[in-house]
Amino acid sequence: MGGTGVRPTDWAPEATRDVIEKEVPGIGEAMRQESLKKVRTAMLSRGTAGILGTTLIVNLPGSPKGARENLAVILPVLEHTVEKLKPVTRNA
Question: For residue 63, is pLDDT > 90?
């Protein structure tokens, strides 16, 4: 329950949007684009990502294989993203 697809029980994107401050649509778009190369039903994915404070929240598919494949898509930008989300410190 709570996945990113179109089943009535798939509510993760809505829950994510309820708590995030900023949406990062490119992450979900990139995961769908790469997944479409493997399976046509990837277009049914509603996975999203967003920022809450200094935390990045990403919806991944419920299947272990799908989660690994989608995580591989975003791993190259995670370090950069985490760096950008660090709080800004001001020198006195």
Answer: no
pLDDT at 92: 61
**What pLDDT sits at residue 1?**
55
At the topology level of CATH, where does 12-85 sit? Molybdenum Cofactor Biosythetic Enzyme; Chain A (3.40.980)
The amino acid sitting at 58 is V
pTM of the model: 0.87
Q: Produce one character per residue of 42-74: b if its CB has 16 or more CB atoms within 10 Å, e if not.
A: beebbbbbbbeeeebbbbbbeeeebeebbeeeb
Distance of CA 69 to the CA centre of its chain: 12
Q: Across the beta sheet with 55-58, what order do the strands follow?
A: 22-23, 49-52, 55-58
